[in-house]
Design goal:
alpha+beta, 5-stranded mixed sheet, 4 helices
Protein backbone atom coordinates (compact mmCIF):
# COMPACT_ATOMS: atom_id res chain seq x y z
CA UNK A 1 0.00 0.00 0.00
CA UNK A 2 1.27 3.45 -0.89
CA UNK A 3 1.84 5.86 1.96
CA UNK A 4 0.63 9.23 0.75
CA UNK A 5 1.51 11.17 3.89
CA UNK A 6 3.30 11.11 7.21
CA UNK A 7 1.75 12.73 10.26
CA UNK A 8 3.91 14.28 12.97
CA UNK A 9 1.92 15.00 16.10
CA UNK A 10 3.25 18.17 17.69
CA UNK A 11 3.18 18.98 21.39
CA UNK A 12 3.86 22.70 21.15
CA UNK A 13 3.71 25.60 18.73
CA UNK A 14 0.90 26.88 16.55
CA UNK A 15 0.00 23.53 15.01
CA UNK A 16 -1.41 20.27 16.33
CA UNK A 17 0.33 18.29 13.62
CA UNK A 18 2.49 18.50 10.55
CA UNK A 19 1.44 16.46 7.54
CA UNK A 20 4.19 15.73 5.04
CA UNK A 21 2.85 14.76 1.62
CA UNK A 22 4.93 11.76 0.49
CA UNK A 23 3.60 11.59 -3.05
CA UNK A 24 3.55 13.86 -6.06
CA UNK A 25 -0.23 13.33 -6.23
CA UNK A 26 -2.67 16.03 -5.16
CA UNK A 27 -3.71 15.89 -1.51
CA UNK A 28 -7.32 15.87 -2.72
CA UNK A 29 -6.76 12.32 -4.01
CA UNK A 30 -6.46 11.05 -0.43
CA UNK A 31 -8.01 13.79 1.69
CA UNK A 32 -10.78 11.49 3.01
CA UNK A 33 -8.24 8.94 4.27
CA UNK A 34 -6.21 11.71 5.86
CA UNK A 35 -9.22 13.14 7.68
CA UNK A 36 -10.13 9.64 8.90
CA UNK A 37 -6.60 9.08 10.21
CA UNK A 38 -6.68 12.38 12.08
CA UNK A 39 -10.09 11.56 13.59
CA UNK A 40 -8.80 8.13 14.66
CA UNK A 41 -5.97 9.91 16.48
CA UNK A 42 -8.54 12.25 18.06
CA UNK A 43 -7.45 15.31 16.11
CA UNK A 44 -10.99 16.61 15.65
CA UNK A 45 -10.42 20.34 15.97
CA UNK A 46 -7.19 22.23 15.58
CA UNK A 47 -4.57 23.77 13.34
CA UNK A 48 -2.79 21.64 10.77
CA UNK A 49 0.32 22.41 8.75
CA UNK A 50 0.74 20.58 5.44
CA UNK A 51 4.09 20.40 3.65
CA UNK A 52 3.61 19.87 -0.08
CA UNK A 53 7.31 19.97 -1.04
CA UNK A 54 7.11 16.93 -3.33
CA UNK A 55 4.01 18.32 -5.06
CA UNK A 56 4.66 22.04 -5.41
CA UNK A 57 8.39 22.38 -4.83
CA UNK A 58 10.27 24.63 -2.46
CA UNK A 59 8.35 27.81 -3.21
CA UNK A 60 5.59 29.98 -1.80
CA UNK A 61 2.96 27.21 -2.17
CA UNK A 62 4.94 24.65 -0.20
CA UNK A 63 3.33 25.06 3.23
CA UNK A 64 -0.40 25.17 3.76
CA UNK A 65 -2.02 26.09 7.06
CA UNK A 66 -5.55 24.74 7.50
CA UNK A 67 -8.02 24.25 10.33
CA UNK A 68 -9.78 21.01 11.07
CA UNK A 69 -13.28 21.34 12.53
CA UNK A 70 -15.41 18.40 13.64
CA UNK A 71 -12.97 16.04 11.92
CA UNK A 72 -13.10 17.75 8.52
CA UNK A 73 -10.74 20.21 6.89
CA UNK A 74 -12.19 23.70 6.69
CA UNK A 75 -11.03 24.52 3.18
CA UNK A 76 -12.03 28.17 3.59
CA UNK A 77 -9.34 28.50 6.29
CA UNK A 78 -6.49 27.31 4.03
CA UNK A 79 -3.58 29.71 3.60
CA UNK A 80 -0.12 29.40 2.16
CA UNK A 81 2.43 30.39 4.79
CA UNK A 82 6.16 30.63 5.37
CA UNK A 83 6.93 27.96 7.94
CA UNK A 84 9.61 27.98 10.62
CA UNK A 85 12.88 26.17 9.99
CA UNK A 86 11.79 23.42 12.39
CA UNK A 87 9.15 22.19 9.92
CA UNK A 88 11.61 22.31 7.02
CA UNK A 89 13.93 20.16 9.13
CA UNK A 90 11.27 17.51 9.86
CA UNK A 91 10.49 17.13 6.17
CA UNK A 92 14.12 17.08 5.05
CA UNK A 93 14.90 14.41 7.66
CA UNK A 94 11.94 12.26 6.56
CA UNK A 95 12.90 12.49 2.89
CA UNK A 96 16.56 11.73 3.56
CA UNK A 97 15.53 8.55 5.41
CA UNK A 98 13.21 7.54 2.55
CA UNK A 99 15.07 8.68 -0.54
CA UNK A 100 12.86 6.66 -2.91
CA UNK A 101 10.16 9.28 -2.24
CA UNK A 102 12.24 11.82 -4.14
CA UNK A 103 12.27 9.80 -7.36
CA UNK A 104 9.02 11.10 -8.82
CA UNK A 105 8.87 14.47 -7.11
CA UNK A 106 8.94 17.89 -8.70
CA UNK A 107 12.30 18.65 -7.05
CA UNK A 108 15.39 19.40 -9.11
CA UNK A 109 18.38 17.07 -9.02
CA UNK A 110 20.26 19.75 -7.05
CA UNK A 111 17.51 19.91 -4.39
CA UNK A 112 17.43 16.12 -4.16
CA UNK A 113 21.22 16.02 -3.74
CA UNK A 114 21.00 18.65 -1.01
CA UNK A 115 18.41 16.64 0.93
CA UNK A 116 20.36 13.41 0.54
CA UNK A 117 23.48 15.25 1.70
CA UNK A 118 21.75 16.30 4.91
CA UNK A 119 20.86 19.87 4.00
CA UNK A 120 17.57 21.34 5.13
CA UNK A 121 15.47 22.88 2.39
Amino acid sequence: MIEYYKIYYLSSGNYDCLIICLSYESIFNYIDDLQNDLRNKEIINGNILIDQLLISGNGKNRFLSIKIKDGLFDLTSANNIEADQYYHQLTSFELKRNKFLLDHSILSSKQISMILGGCII
